[in-house]
Amino acid sequence: MKGLIVALALVALVSGCASDSSEEQGNGFKIVQTNFLGSLWDESYARAGIISQDGGQSFEIPGGGLWAFGDTFKGSRSADLTPHYAGGAVSCSIASLGQDARHYPPTFDYLVSSNSGVVSPFNYFTNESPVRYRIWPGAGIYVNGRYYLFYSLIEIYGSGTWDFRSVGSGLARSSVALGSYERLQPQGNWRFPVEPSCIIAADGWLYLYQVGEAHGKQGTLVARVRPEKIEDPTAYEFYTGLGPQFSSRKDAASLLVKNTPGQVSVAWNAYLHKYVMASSSDFSHPRRIRFLVADAPCGPWSRPVAPIEVPKERQGKRVNLVYCAYLHPELFRENGRVMNLTYSLILEDAGFDANCEMVEIQLK
Q: Cβ contacts of residue 330 below 8 Å, gap of 6+?
């Protein structure tokens, strides 16, 4: 997953989408304290045979939350946390977090095999070789009594760092949170028209946010669908402008927010009485996480407000890039005055030895 995230950030930078200092002004909220809590790695990782992973988006489920991670590397760590890789990796892992386990570090319950090793919730189709393809997780939601996860199918076509491409986005479902997810094939086709990193429910709709392009510009797109139609790829509509206006044609979509490289995460904050969007970094500001606010899912959204900077060194290494900044509203405290967010890291000379970290943000 790291490769795709870096590629997205690089595209945003080359396209002239890097943020500038004038954008970092605005009124929305003030942060009075930022606590960088550190890596999520703990004994629950060790029990599942996990050394490191990235991603970490989550959604609320009955009794807690479900988290989805990207590339997850197997093995063990010594007492001094030195990694010992064994067993390769899975390109997706999922874990549940009960309401009584919401402390730092979170105590996750991973989907594992009969021998207690971490496994992916997705299966490959017969024409997909695990050597050639990866399945990376997208946003998820619990609706209609079922658990849904979007995913991206990634094709590896060479041995170089950038020799991969996304060949489409799909939707999978399960009747249990921590189980295998069936990749849906309505009308015999697994592809869905949206590749979301976040889903929220509001006003009788599901709103799905993804970073992409519209009319040659990079930013955030949003689609919507009725909850009962989530399995129908023809039922999705795309934001085309203020009103808000929507169209069933994706090629008619307009950007909801410009200049959002990487991924975005959106959550309702009851303390602010606003929606909050977290935006990941780019190479101009590789350690910055920005926030925007809006009164409605489709905005209008503010300019970036109250950015935070991840420290220069984390997990004993220099930080080269922060990505996958995800809000976790199920962990918010004091009605949202205290927000929790996780992010992934590319660390200098660390290889795959980097884990998601959590930051706690206290608002004025």
A: 58, 59, 60, 64, 65, 97, 102
